[in-house]
Amino acid sequence: MRGTRKRMKVTRKVFDSTGNQQAVEEKVVTLHIDPQTAIGSKIPARREGDLHWGKIPADIIFVVRDKPHQIFERSAQNVADIQYTAQITRKQLERGENINVPSIDGSDRLTVELEKLNFIRGLFKINGQGLPKVDGKGERGNLLVKLEIIQDSSKFAYCLYYLLTARFLLQ
User: Fold this and answer.
1) Is the Cβ–Cβ distance between 110 and 142 less than 8 Å?
2) What is the Cα–Cα distance from 127 to 138, expressed in whole angstroms?
3) Which of 14, 51, 82, 137 is most buried, with most CB under 10 Å away?
4) For 100-151, how does the pLDDT look when each residue is reduced to its tens digit (9 = 90+)?
């Protein structure tokens, strides 16, 4: 959301003019990662590789990986879109009750009315509540909310009781 700075410890070998290894140096490299950086992007650390006598040190390339979030997932189609899975019961869906959806910045929770939604295959979007877009013009991506219908525990227990009772009586 805001970008970050990562500090990485780099170990490099130092060679003399004959090609023999003289020492091993450890250095901490600071990487600046923008909020719009895509997964799989490569960030170079210039001239931080092994140091050979009479040659320019090589570059070290770091590949950006996504750190999983506790609540949200990144959308596969768009870098700025994030996905949240809301678990609801069939009764809540039939009644059209409100559900609370957390926002990415944690400042507030969004209340969504199920009866007013037009969603396809249990997925709907809330515009402007995702990650900042790559353009950097202040626009944000979308928050995709996926509805996962869970079994009502009271009905499940009721059916399980009758199934077990019928099985016991048939024996």
Assistant:
1) no
2) 14
3) 82
4) 889 888 777 788 777 666 555 667 888 888 887 776 677 888 888 888 877 7
- Compute the Cα dihedral for 125, 126, 129, 134 and give only its sign: positive
Residue that wins the pLDDT comparison between 159 and 77:
77
C-alpha separations of 16 from 47, 52, 161 in Å:
17, 7, 79
24 φ, ψ (degrees, to nearest 5): -120, 125
Chain-centre distance for alpha carbon 156: 33
Beta strands in the chain (DSSP E): 4-15, 21-33, 42-45, 60-63, 73-74, 82-89, 98-102, 109-113, 123-126, 143-150
State the pLDDT at residue 108: 73
DSSP at 116: G
- How many C-beta atoms surround the C-beta of residue 45 within 10 A? 17
Give 109's strand partners: 102
